[in-house]
Amino acid sequence: MGLAVAALWPAGARPQPLTAAEMAPRVLACTACHGKEGRATPEGYFPRIAGKPAGYLYNQLQNFRDGRRNYAPMAHLLRHMSDAYLWEMARYFAALDVPYPPAVPAKAPESTLRRGARLALQGDPALGLPACAQCHGPALAGGGDYVPGLLGLPRDYINGQIGAWKAGHRRAHAPDCMARVADALTPDDIGAVSAWLAAQSVPPPSARPLPNLPPPWPCGGLGSTAQGSRTP
Amino acid sequence: MSRTRVGRWFAVVLALGMVVSLAVGAVLWRALGQHVAEPGQASQSVLPAQDADAIQRGEYLARLGHCMGCHTTQGGAAFAGGHGIETPFGTISGPNLTPDAKTGIGRWSADDFWNAMHHGISRDGRLLYPAFPYPSYTHVTRQDADAIFGYLRSLPAVEQASRPHALRFPFNTQAAVAAWRALYFRPGAWVPGQDRPPEWNRGAYLVRGLGHCAACHAPRNAWGATIDAAALRGGMMPVQNWLAPSLAAPHEAGVADWPLEEIVALLRTGQSPRATVSGPMADVVFGSTQYLHAEDARAMAVYLQSLPQQDRPDAPKAAVPGAAVMERGAAVYAARCAQCHGASGQGQPAQFSALAGNRAVNLGNPTNLVRMVLQGGYAPATPGNPWPYGMPPFQQVLGDEDIAAVLTYVRNAWGNRAPPLGSLDVQRVRERRAPG
Questions:
Q1: Which CATH number among 3.90.226.10, 1.10.287.3240, 3.30.420.40, 1.10.760.10 corresponds to the domain A24-101?
Q2: Does A12 touch chain B (CB under 8 A)?
Q3: How large is the ipTM?
Q4: Which CATH number describes the domain made up of B323-430?
């Protein structure tokens, strides 16, 4: 695919980026599921994409297209996309700053929520697990251009993603540090952390840009890897 | 034992008998000199020293042949082997074509490559499955085959074992391939039509040879062989279940009455005023025809315009849809479709297809239409259309009844006239079954 993309635009003929007004009708195919302006509701399965870091969205679009993430409807939509266009789409949704809906109150027992909070904010050294906050930011609002925030997502979606990582159905650029995290999480712990995360309200957007945080383990897709295969 | 089971056994026995007898015939026929060089073919390799121009030419030709479509996995190393191609006989995997000695074609000579392209025979003498479209590639000249080989040799070697085929008995036997070849394959050089201009001949060579348009746009018989390949009269693509429309029918995808530039635009950009590509043709434009040099695209267009045209069938005696269905369809249309396709199905030029008067909407076979609604899709991103528009998938949003109603409405509004759809028609497409 890299080969196909590299040859797509001869030097000097690279198209100029589109404005948000030009992009909006082009991404109507996305918002049918991801909600108006990409702000999916917490009840549904489809995640919010508005306001996520551009690098993260770009990586995910590539991952769906190139088979590192498996979701047939996304793969079908993206199969004939250039890296340059995927970057435009990622930039468009990243720049949207639309309010989050209030979180859905947690139904899980208190002990589960306490465990979830501990995993998210402190990790579990006994299991060798770093805290979510270590990479995803102290407010879990994301860290830098490539690491997404974890709040405002449906619980089913969080469960689905960590489960898919654990089962090898979702992958990131190698070395895949989230796969290591998912591997160390038990099904109960996944349920606990998703229950707690989904119940947290999203704080008002902090000053951007979010700082890049040093990952505890080697992680791919944090800029150099992703940008290495990108055309713009 | 049920009747159908008896029938199935009978079919297997019949197939086996046919395979055995044809294999004997095929072996004899092969022994009798199938390898005799055809007139007009250089018998020696003309592989030149590997200069950049030759490699570039080979790359161009490999794109026209869309080799990567089958020989590269989604997101995988270029030419290092592909996902399986599903056929009614099982799954066939495109092998590794990189110059790796162990898992690729590193030990192949130009003659070996020519044997594969022209005769459909591998380096080790195995008869190749015609999912590798050598019934079309056999028309490719030795010079072009050598150029492609030279390009493949220039690629980085990737060690990646090719996936084994997964074919059912008896199709997993060489005897079955031999029988098939005896019935349906003759190696043959493309012979230019003497009374035709060079442009037409160039187009015919590309369409029938490397372009292997017939692989999808010709109907296939029960044994998977194309029927009258050169006529390009379209048919259902087995297993994939898309309809490859006829390129010779004015009411399907014929282009005889199109301005030439619009055909060229469709091939090179995936978009034209009268049509936008989708489904497998979007794959073809993205992986292959977007790279066509303008003069080659034009030549193909000239040739496609010259195809003998099929008669338009009599106006369909389609049942008139009931008022309740039309009303339900109109409501779904207003809620889900009108924003892009317009209240009168007029679309928006270069953005969203017009549905009024759209051939693809009015096709008797509704497969592609239902699939577009279920799966949506973007036109391919090409230099001529770098930021394509797209349609969302509705498979998780709309039920079969609603899809049937909205398509019945679309097929019978604004002057459109085509048979109504029932929810069973939609369900069949969801399950990748051919129309009943």
A1: 1.10.760.10
A2: no
A3: 0.86
A4: 1.10.760.10
